[in-house]
Amino acid sequence: MLDVSRATAEYLAKLLAGHRERLGTRKGTRALGPFKQAVLVLRWFVDGSRLVQLARDNGVATPTAYRYLHEGLTVLADHALDLSTALERAAAAGYTHLNLDGTVIRTDRVAAAGPNKADLWWSGKHKHHGGNVQVIAAPDGWPIWVSAVRPGREHDTTCARAHGLVDALNRLAAALGIPILTDLGYENAGPGFRHPVKKPKGGELTERQRTFNAVIRGVHGVAERANALLKVTFKALRRVSLDPAAITRIARAALVLLQLEHGRTT
């Protein structure tokens, strides 16, 4: 039994039906109706079902199952909030702070040379191939926004700058007094960021710095809930066998599904 509400399946089916209507697809010309296509997409997301199996279960060719999946990913991802809207809603909710954390979504090996001929998608920190996705979360760890994917070899601060996050979050902190809590992966990102103080080389932290670090780590620790919610809920996010570029749509689509299931966007 699929561990997702019927309301979510019906909502996705409605989105797919609207997409078909915009394309001018005539009724009866598709192998699967919108609802069955929605279930196919949800099984891939939630259960991690292989597309070969999904194709067999639905009596369609494997390329057709791939096409249905990618269509579903696009339709869902298009309904994810953009950064500006997500931050506006967070401010309206009266949040005292936001959390920012990066997660590397594992992928099958991808041969792509980066700078200095280094493997572009290899994460030295995690010791596997993957794509870096930045996740903004509410104070309680609820994910409210996910970024596009960047190669796994890039550090969190590099990814955040590439997405315009550093500038946007510093502006938010300056204008509304909403700081961004992070780990040391975002060191020197700007005055709006709050992260632990790094121990100086050959020195020790002061008592005040150690206390500050304990507070920041304690409050920011719930940010790990955001990544866990996405990866635990959706097996598809634990390892992606599609083109790594598809991680952008997969992550955004997963966020939309999570928010639908819980009835919460901010």
Q: How would you concisely characterize the structure shown here?
A:
Strands 1, 2, 3, 4, 5, 6 and 7 form a seven-stranded mixed β-sheet that branches. The protein is α/β, with parallel strands linked by helices.
Tags for this entry?
globular; 266 residues; alpha/beta; 10 helices
Which SSEs are present, and which pair or pack?
Layout: H1 6-23, H2 34-46, H3 51-58, H4 62-77, H5 83-92, E1 98-106, E2 122-123, E3 128-137, E4 143-146, E5 150-151, H6 156-162, H7 165-176, E6 180-181, E7 193-194, H8 207-220, H9 223-233, H10 247-262
Parallel strand pairs: 1-6, 6-7
Antiparallel strand pairs: 1-3, 2-3, 3-4, 3-5
Task: Write a structural description.
With 266 residues, the protein is α/β, with parallel strands linked by helices. The chain has helices at residues 6-23, 34-46, 51-58, 62-77, 83-92, 156-162, 165-176, 207-220, 223-233, 247-262, and strands at residues 98-106, 122-123, 128-137, 143-146, 150-151, 180-181, 193-194. It contains 10 helices and 7 strands. The radius of gyration is 20 Å and the shape is globular. The two termini are 29 Å apart. The mean pLDDT is 93.
Please trace the helix and strand order, writing H or E for each element.
Answer: HHHHHEEEEEHHEEHHH
Regions with little confidence, pLDDT below 50 for 5+ residues: none
Termini distance?
29 Å
Estimate what percentage of residues fall within beta strands. 5-15%
- The shape is globular
Give the helix proportion (percent range): 40-55%
| Oligomer type | single chain
Rg from C-alpha positions?
A: 20 Å
Q: Helical segment tally?
A: 10
The biggest beta sheet is recorded as:
7 strands, mixed
Number of strands: 7
Helices and strands: which structural class? Answer: alpha/beta
What is the typical, i.e. mean, pLDDT? Answer: 93
